[in-house]
Design brief:
alpha/beta; 5-stranded parallel β-sheet; two-stranded antiparallel sheet; 13 helices
Amino acid sequence: MISKEFTGLINALGQHIIGKPQQLKLAVACMLARGHLLIEDLPGMGKTTLSHGLANLFGLDFSRIQFTSDLLPADMLGANIYNSHSRDFEFRHGPVFNQLVLADEINRASPKTQSALLEAMEEHQVSIDGTTYPLPEPFFVVGTQNPGYQSGTYPLPESQLDRFLMCISLGYPDWEAEKAMLRQRSERHQQPLNSLLNIETLLAWQQDVVNVNAADPVLDYILRLVTTSRTTPGFPNALSPRASKAILQAAKAWAYMHERDYVVPEDVQAVFVAVAEHRLRSANQESAAEAVLSQRLLESVDPLAA
């Protein structure tokens, strides 16, 4: 059973993203696990709304970077600008220097610009002209991505996809959820989601997640899953050691949200599709909604095997 604190967070987010409680739980778990989130979907599904909601709920500084084909790395990271008064160059921080960065339509930028995010996402720092600048803590990237068949998109390389702890798809709402959305007043944008947390609480929760225990049988289950992806035909991209760590991080966060200080196999199963599918699939698979490969892995590996 999910704890009261996280039930309140999910319900608050659910006022803006109606009828998607599972995806909202995964998004919160991703932040507790200190991971970056990729949201794949058609335009108009609520990807940007969810990103704004997460930033507001957790009280994080927010910036949005609209990725386009002519976006340059310096537009995102910042650059050294000559100051005529001091007669020296000074670094002007780019929009990536915020606690939650929305990389909107990330697959519309060129591969060069996409790759400029790799250091920021992995090491929480930016290197410009030989100088390293630390990013704020906590630091999250929420990337949104349109389907690859839409015009003007560049597929994200595997190295970029691997930096995202989770990938989710909101999908179309059901009949009742969309009807409830239509009934809402148009003043939603005038009444943004209020902050329910402060940064100190979020950092404390993240540390608690690190301390959640995972016994050897759970670790063995994760290893059986990733090893099967490496040794069984039919998986275009095997799960890397980074993926193993991501599965464990996410499972710990899921256990913590459910008021446990230990991981059980059901926690691994709950987060596995969101963590593994975007790593497993080939470039021609359309979206995260087609969770074929990760489901096949789950069905083929016994969580209780010796």
